[in-house]
Prior knowledge:
The protein is built from 2 helices and 3 strands, in the order βββαα. A hairpin with a 4-residue loop joins β1 (3-11) and β2 (16-23). The longest helix is centred in the middle third of the chain and has 20 residues, at 35-54. It is α+β, with helices and mostly antiparallel strands.
Amino acid sequence: MSIKQINASYLVNEDRILFRFNTHDEAEYRLWFTRRVTLFILVATTHLLVKKLEIPHSLDAIKALTEFGNQAILES
């Protein structure tokens, strides 16, 4: 199974994020994420990325990379 197309949309009336994945074999998968689940995924992902960066980099480098990422998000 390889993903052909990804689509995400926020549904205001449901207060949910809908992720749809289409595969090359014409299958479609739909995932409904609540605000709570989405926040958990974002926090867990950030934590895992920081842990991954701690191995080859110093703590100062990680802080600099995190600050750079935060600034990039604010500017976009």
